[in-house]
Design brief:
alpha/beta, 4-stranded mixed sheet, 9 helices, potassium, nucleotide-binding, EC 2.7.1.15, Ribokinase-like, metal-binding
Amino acid sequence: MTLLVVGSVNRDITAQLTEFPQPGETVLAHAAETATGGKSANQAVAAALVGAESHLVARCGADAAGTEAVASLLEAGVQAEAVTPGRGAQGTAFITVRADGENTIVVVPGANAELSADDCPPALLDQAEWVLLSLEVPLEAVLETAARAHATGTKVALNASPLPTEAVDLRNVDMVIVNEGEAQHLLERAAQVGGGHRAEHPAESRTDYSEPARSGLADPAAQLGVETLIVTRGGEGALLHRSGQPAVDVPGVPVKAVDTSGCGDAFAGALVGRLTCGDSLETAAATASRFAADAATRFGAQSSYPRDFSVR
């Protein structure tokens, strides 16, 4: 069985700084690099590097950067036959990385804005065990792809990032992967619209989702109406929430982080990639945690992912 990743591919332009500039301030960077990125491309590469048969559906630029992106994906082991040129230029992410590894990212969508659910070949969808989606492409394309996958019995994982201003319909999603801040926003929105099965939980128990989850007073996956909620916590690892079950803590892997760009994508891609390979959720999450931690020890996003990673 295969993993089908549907979403974005970008050109990353990364600058390494001592400190982020203040409004109106100009600072000098230590170094800069250009590489292939984009949340979905990163995730597809991570999945391939942990042993999954990883296919990417995306729109690349009708320019040299788009051609370079496809070549980079193929080199990393991603099946890129469904990465097709759009009318516009390659999507671009402008990334600044501070000395402690923190980053800021501004994305110009470019050809990513042209992606639609019709770009996903039915044959690939039919043979996929999982579909992994994220939100750097039009929300309509994401939701329709999720609905089509759900209708065929394919499991759907959503890395709900970057969060849009409008609510995200999770009816056709089996698993949500987010960081702590994104989890809190999703749960607050669910509370506002009465989503999921959260009516029996007092509103104050959702202010900081992690504490009630640890004490068994809340069921955040059920509150969102999904089977599984994965919350990444940076260097502290992740929390696994299955609807109706106690949370499982996946420990982080201590490393000296130099750049956290793309680490969330590394985790998501490695996690769903290993699920596609037949691993349990706990085993897949532990592997994903190690993979993302390894990536944080090098600069870049996709380019930092380990090429000689052992899943055991």
